[in-house]
Design goal:
This protein is mainly α. The protein has a domain of about 80 residues. It is about 40% helix and about 5% strand. It has a two-stranded antiparallel sheet with strand order 1-2. Strand 1 and strand 2 form a beta hairpin.
Length: about 150
Amino acid sequence: MSSEEKHLKVTDKRMFTPQGELREEYRVRAEKSTAAPPAEAAPAPAPQPVPPPREPEPSGPPPELPDAEPDGPSFYDLVSMMAEPIPLYLGDMDLPNGQVVENLEMARLHIDLLGVLKTKTAGNLTAQEAAFLEDLLYRARVRYVQKTR
C-alpha cells in the first residue's frame, strides 16, 4: 500500500466542547433518555462540575436538579460529597487556618472511588447524571496529572 492510499480519520469522542457545552450527539441521547410527555416537557439543565448551593435566592426557590427529592439527598449530592476533598488534597484549596494540605495519594484515592462509583452505576444513571459524573472525573483526573508532572 502506498502512502497516498492510507487514510487516517480522527474523531473527537469527548462529551463536551472546549467551551464546556454538551456536544450535539450527546444532547440527542440525553433528550431521548429523559424525554417526558409533551405536556410536561421542560428543558434539561446543562451538567455542571459542581451543583449549585441549596441556599434560597431572593428571586425565589433554587432550581431543582433532575430526580432530586425535595427532602432528601440526590445522586448529585453523593457525587459532590465524594469529590469535595479532591481540590484540598491536590493543594488547590487552603484550610480555614491558611495552611495548604497536599496529599496526592489521598487525591488519587478519592478520584479512584469516583471511578468505582461510575463503574458500579453504569447503565443505571440518567444521561445527565452520567455526564455530570464523567465530567467531574475527567476534570479531577486532568488536574491530578497536572500536579504529578
